[in-house]
């Protein structure tokens, strides 16, 4: 998504009252000069009106009451017939968590009060109680089914680049040779049923001509898949590009992005994810699977009014859906729940934890039933190790953590710099050309190296897998100690053969290539995940370190490090374990995940005894990465796109006060406010048309500046349009009032318009001397959109979420105008 295509609006700014004049007064009894209006803070008839009793003021021609204390006990004063559209939000705006939770409590009280009236009402209450479990069940079923479909289709299309199965076109390479009796141990992937493109076109399987033909067809299919993917995204669903996790984090924090989790996005993301993975680009499908699962959760939530009509409740479903997405991506249900809790969710109550766990369970069960990889596992690179690790190995594990932290910091800076350049130059205007160019470079460079040519998940599987008698990989071509020939023995600690050394060189080249190309791939206008490329880079580095440690232990087994643990011929070093630790370290360095990442990798291996090495490497990578910047890749992209996201992990350490951040400032225009009972419809519409603010404080009078409540721009517009359409006698000269009782007007006056139902009677307020550290905590923990600033009970200014983000950016010496949305 190109954030510059989107627009933004601000809240009401700057006040009728001059802040400096208020704070510089010697006492509250003095007359204050505020934006050309003389305000007397002595007690006037406004004080009596605030008491809630109907009172007639001398000289006034109407009677007004504020409704008493009972009316302020609820956040919203609901009408018998709610106004359609009121309480909803515009695109690219933030929801009001407090109002949404209040709406849900009112709905829940209403259901509970009626459930004893009849059997039908009781059944409705049961349906309401179980609707949460039902929606996460449907989400888990859909997520597991789509993940299985994506896995099967991506494997088939990936093998299509190299050849085709003549006996059954829908079989991939491995499935094609399952039933063949003519395969050999060394070449188990070759069978008569599978034909390479050179065999089909030229009729020969070996030689320079066949190599060139296979090379050409590999590039052709890679470019075709990439071109089709980017065209589908560009034409049908622009929101289907990228990982989706930065936007989902922002949506879960309360931001509205219409269409991002819609049915078209789901359809196109599912199709183009298969094409993008099959094209050979340095990306993964695990991150986009979280987006796919959240699309499913969003679509199913519209089947239940409890969630479709409440944005806060809908985000509970999306939190559970993100857990289901990681569950099917890595085959890690528990890790998925922790990922949702640690990485993406903003509001995570206990019942959401249970439902997330259940959604992850259902999704994993469905994927296991589909068995897309044919190995009775949920992921392709599931491994099991049977050898213990030794204490001295913590040193190389920590070094892998250092490498992961350095790689993460380097990748974040380089990728953000490239994405920022893409946004600010003409190159970003041609996304199709960029994808074709990156896909062409990737295919041309990747084909000669077998470790970059193969699917990245298969590469990780090969790097994770320990060498044994059934492994024919080049990485397992060790020399026998008996005769020096290439054999496959059961003991891993043995001298490396020429195949291992050749594989080491190829892995080093693959590591350099992956590091460079991933920087330019993440952020393309195709579905692109970062989990798998990061894990591949770490697995390559880890396998190289593991083989080096293995050979060191073999040739120098008499060193004091190895002498106590590694005897000659002992099963001492496991290179695959180093690959796994390296993969976790690099992924942790990029995303800054800790607990959830360790649990995900633990579930991949099924071994409890490797948790300590994983924890050591992941924490080291986080510490090293945090030394260069505390933001992970997702937070960096959120900041790059200007989303209004208050990160709970980020500390506010400045000593500023609310009066220094609030609007109005000295040079700002007056604060746009509404009075509670002396505006006409025409004057109200003029305020709406002349400003672009999202809401307006409602005060008793401009003289006193005493706060009554807060009204949202969208709600005012909808309510006025609805009244003029449905109520007779509402004209431009009609009086608008936000009070409980209608004012007494002359007999010939038009019918007044009551807007009390849209008024927030209990807006959050702070004093002008409140430390910003407390204000930021209030915004984070309550999910506020705005907070009003008062001085001795009088309205002084307003602080919005955007104001806080701008202030934090300014304190960090960043561009405060980079925050684009509300």
Would you write up a description of this structure?
- This protein has 822 residues and is an alpha/beta fold.
- The chain has 30 helices and 14 strands.
- The protein has a four-stranded mixed sheet with strand order 5-7-8-11. Strands 6-9-10 form a three-stranded mixed sheet. It has a three-stranded mixed sheet with strand order 12-13-14.
- α7 (208-236) packs antiparallel against α9 (263-278), α9 (263-278) runs antiparallel to α10 (286-301) and α15 packs parallel to α19.
- The protein is elongated and about 105 Å long.
- The model is unreliable at 1-80 and 481-492 (pLDDT under 50).
Brief description of this entry?
The chain has 822 residues and is an alpha/beta fold. Helix 13 packs antiparallel against helix 23 (595-605), helix 15 (394-424) runs antiparallel to helix 20 (531-555) and helix 15 (394-424) packs parallel to helix 25.
Q: What layout of secondary structure does this protein have?
A:
Elements lengths: L18 H6 L6 E4 L2 E4 L4 H6 L46 H18 L4 H42 L2 E3 L7 H4 L17 E3 H5 L6 H29 L8 H8 L10 H16 L7 H16 L3 H4 L2 H20 L2 H12 L5 H21 L23 H31 L6 H16 L3 H4 L2 H9 L33 H24 L9 H25 L4 H4 L11 H17 L3 H11 L5 H18 L4 H9 L16 H4 L12 E2 L3 E2 H10 L4 E5 L7 E6 H14 L8 E3 L15 E2 L4 E2 L4 E3 L4 H11 L3 E6 L2 E7 H11 L11
Parallel strand pairs: 5-7, 9-10, 12-13
Antiparallel strand pairs: 1-2, 3-4, 6-9, 7-8, 8-11, 13-14
Helix pairs in contact: 4-9, 4-10, 4-12, 4-14, 7-9, 7-16, 8-25, 9-10, 10-12, 12-13, 12-14, 13-14, 13-23, 15-19, 15-20, 15-22, 15-24, 15-25, 16-19, 18-20, 19-20, 20-22, 22-24, 23-24
């Amino acid at each position: 998504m190109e954030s510059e295509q989107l627009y933004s609006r601000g809240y009401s700014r700057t006040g009728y009252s001059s802040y400096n004049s208020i704070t510089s007064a010697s006492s509250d009894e003095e007359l204050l000069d505020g934006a050309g209006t003389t305000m007397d803070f002595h007690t006037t008839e406004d004080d009596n009106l605030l008491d809630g009793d109907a009172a007639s003021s001398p000289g006034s021609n109407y009677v007004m009451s504020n409704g008493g204390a009972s009316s302020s006990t609820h956040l919203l004063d609901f009408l018998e017939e709610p106004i359609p559209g009121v309480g909803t939000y515009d695109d690219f705006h933030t929801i009001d968590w407090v109002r949404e939770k209040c709406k849900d409590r009112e709905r829940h009280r209403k259901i509970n009060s009626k459930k004893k009236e009849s059997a039908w009402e009781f059944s409705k209450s049961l349906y309401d109680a179980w609707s949460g479990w039902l929606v996460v069940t449907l989400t888990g079923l859909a997520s597991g089914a789509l993940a299985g479909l994506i896995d099967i289709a991506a494997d088939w299309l990936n093998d299509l680049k190299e050849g085709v199965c003549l006996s059954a076109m829908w079989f991939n390479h491995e499935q094609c040779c399952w039933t063949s009796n003519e395969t050999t141990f060394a070449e188990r992937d070759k069978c008569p049923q599978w034909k390479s493109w050179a065999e089909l076109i030229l009729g020969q399987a070996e030689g320079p001509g066949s190599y060139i033909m296979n090379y050409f067809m590999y590039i052709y299919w890679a470019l075709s898949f990439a071109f089709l993917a980017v065209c589908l995204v560009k034409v049908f669903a622009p929101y289907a590009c990228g990982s989706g996790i930065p936007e989902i984090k922002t949506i879960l924090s309360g931001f509205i992005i219409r269409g991002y989790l819609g049915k078209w996005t789901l359809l196109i993301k599912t199709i183009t994810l298969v094409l993008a993975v099959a094209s050979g680009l340095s990306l993964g499908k695990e991150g986009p699977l979280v987006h796919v699962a959240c699309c499913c959760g969003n679509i199913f939530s519209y089947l239940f009014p409890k969630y479709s009509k409440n944005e806060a409740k809908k985000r509970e479903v999306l939190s559970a859906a993100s857990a289901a997405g990681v569950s099917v991506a890595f085959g890690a249900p528990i890790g998925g729940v922790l990922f949702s809790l640690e990485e993406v969710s903003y509001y995570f109550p206990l019942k959401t934890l249970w439902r997330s766990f259940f959604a992850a369970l259902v999704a994993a069960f469905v994927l296991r039933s589909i068995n897309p990889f044919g190995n009775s596992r949920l992921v392709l690179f599931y491994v099991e190790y049977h050898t213990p690790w030794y204490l001295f190995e913590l040193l190389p594990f920590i070094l892998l953590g250092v490498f992961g932290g350095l790689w993460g910091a380097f990748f974040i800076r380089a990728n953000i710099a490239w994405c920022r350049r893409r946004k600010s130059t003409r190159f970003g205007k041609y996304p199709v050309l960029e994808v074709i160019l990156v896909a062409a470079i990737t295919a041309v460079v990747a084909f000669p190296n077998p470790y970059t040519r193969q699917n990245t998940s298969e590469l990780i599987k090969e790097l994770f897998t320990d060498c044994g008698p059934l492994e024919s990989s080049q990485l397992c071509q060790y020399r026998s100690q008996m005769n020096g020939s290439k054999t496959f023995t059961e003991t891993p600690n043995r001298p490396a053969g020429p195949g291992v050394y050749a594989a080491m060189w190829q892995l080093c080249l693959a590591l350099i290539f992956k590091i460079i190309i991933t920087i330019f791939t993440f952020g393309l206008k195709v579905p692109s995940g970062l989990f798998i490329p990061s894990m591949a880079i770490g697995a390559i580095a880890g396998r190289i370190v593991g083989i080096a440690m293995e050979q060191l232990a073999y040739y120098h087994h008499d060193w004091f490090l190895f002498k106590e643990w590694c005897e000659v011929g002992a099963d001492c070093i496991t290179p695959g374990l180093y690959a796994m630790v390296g993969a976790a370290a690099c992924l942790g360095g990029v995303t800054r995940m800790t607990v959830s990442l360790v649990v995900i990798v633990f579930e991949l291996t099924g071994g409890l005894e490797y948790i300590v090495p994983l924890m050591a490497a992941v924490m080291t990578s986080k510490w090293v990465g945090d030394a260069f910047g505390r933001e992970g890749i997702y937070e960096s992209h959120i900041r790059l796109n200007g989303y209004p996201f208050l990160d709970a992990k980020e500390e506010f350490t400045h000593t500023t006060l609310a009066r220094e951040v609030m609007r109005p400032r000295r040079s700002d225009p007056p604060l746009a406010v509404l009075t509670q009972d002396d505006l006409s419809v025409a004057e109200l519409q003029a305020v709406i048309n002349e400003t672009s603010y999202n809401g307006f404080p409602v005060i008793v009078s401009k003289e006193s500046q005493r706060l009554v409540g807060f009204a949202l721009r969208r709600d005012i517009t909808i309510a006025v349009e609805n009244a003029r359409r449905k109520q007779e006698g509402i004209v431009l000269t009609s009086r608008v009032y936000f009070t409980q009782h209608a004012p007494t007007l002359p007999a010939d006056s038009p019918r007044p318009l009551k807007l009390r139902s849209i008024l927030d009677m209990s807006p959050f307020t702070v004093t002008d001397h409140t430390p910003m550290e407390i204000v930021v905590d209030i915004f984070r923990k309550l999910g506020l959109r705005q907070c009003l600033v008062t001085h001795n009970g009088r309205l002084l200014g307003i602080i919005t979420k955007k104001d806080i983000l701008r202030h934090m950016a300014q304190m960090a010496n960043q561009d405060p105008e980079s925050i684009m949305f509300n």
